[in-house]
Design goal:
Keywords: Cell membrane, Membrane, Transmembrane, Transmembrane helix, Transport
Number of helices: 11
Strand content: under 5%
GO cellular component, one term: plasma membrane
Shape: globular
Helix content: over 70%
Structural class: mainly alpha
Main location: membrane
Family: Belongs to the 4-toluene sulfonate uptake permease (TSUP) (TC 2.A.102) family.
Membrane topology: Multi-pass membrane protein
Radius of gyration: 17 Å
Number of domains: 1
């Protein structure tokens, strides 16, 4: 599809900001996916293109953390596999759902995530004792991976919260291992979207370049400052993008609300 140069520039800028925020605490998809939808990209193509660009940013952040010694690949290999399999299943499922359902469902998920970020547990810098065993970590990773393949925005934040609140990791190590699990889910979801023909390659690769730069900058910022300052920004972004999506008169959810009120 053809997009105006100013729209492409806007999406590239959104990818940089999303890559930066995603590397700190996750949730970069809260910026890029609604931005793609607002630009007029069809829901499934928006999901596939978002997976393409975010995979590059997530990989960059992961390797940045790994080079700094913050990633235990052996311990989290099985959770990464669970994330991959869950995401593949989610991506397979979403391609069999009416796209109009997605357009109406996305604002509801954004609102739910805003509530989650407001009410979620506080994150700390130091490691603590784990509250879940290997089996629990596998199942949680598979469930979040399924969500990533099905929808995506906020996945990194869910992984980080799981690793910090349940697996007992400190913020930086939690964010670092989030990149590993999120990269696995991104690659699975992207593969499914490529097979389904739902990726806008030129746009996705242009956004990927910006996502790489944002991911590298965000990973360095996370290692230096931690991720707690990002939560208020994520809450504001969830609510702002929900309002933007519902501002579209053709949005199915808005039409349903109007019908109920009318």
């Amino acid at each position: 599809m053809d997009l105006a140069p100013d729209i492409i520039a806007f999406l590239i800028a959104a990818a940089f900001v999303a890559g930066f925020i995603d590397a700190l605490a996750g949730g970069g998809g809260l910026i890029t996916l609604p931005a793609l939808l607002a630009a007029g990209v069809p829901p499934l193509a928006a999901l596939g293109t978002n997976k393409l660009q975010s995979s590059f940013g997530t990989a960059t952040a992961f390797f940045t953390f790994a080079r700094a010694g913050h990633v235990d690949v052996r311990r989290f290999a099985l959770p990464a596999l669970a994330s991959f399999l869950g995401s593949a299943t989610g991506a397979f499922t979403v391609q069999r759902i009416d796209p109009s359902f997605l357009a109406g469902f996305i604002p509801l998920l954004l609102i739910a995530m805003a509530i989650y970020f407001l009410a979620g547990p506080k994150m700390r810098d130091e490691d603590r004792h784990t509250r879940i065993g290997a089996a629990g970590l596998f199942l949680f990773s598979a469930g979040i991976g399924f969500y990533d393949g099905f929808f995506g925005p906020g996945t990194g934040s869910f992984f980080t919260t799981m690793l910090v609140a349940l697996a007992g990791l400190g913020v930086v190590r939690g964010v670092a291992h989030t990149k590993m699990l999120n990269l696995a889910s991104n690659l699975a979801g992207l593969s499914a979207m490529i097979v389904g023909g739902h990726v806008l390659w030129l746009l996705g690769l242009a956004m990927a370049g910006a996502s790489i730069a944002g991911g590298k900058a965000g990973a360095h910022a996370a290692m230096r400052f931690g991720a707690r300052a990002v939560r208020p920004l994520l809450v504001c972004m969830c609510l702002a993008l929900t309002v933007k999506l519902l501002a579209d008169p053709a949005n199915p959810l808005r039409m349903e609300i109007a019908a109920l009120l009318g």
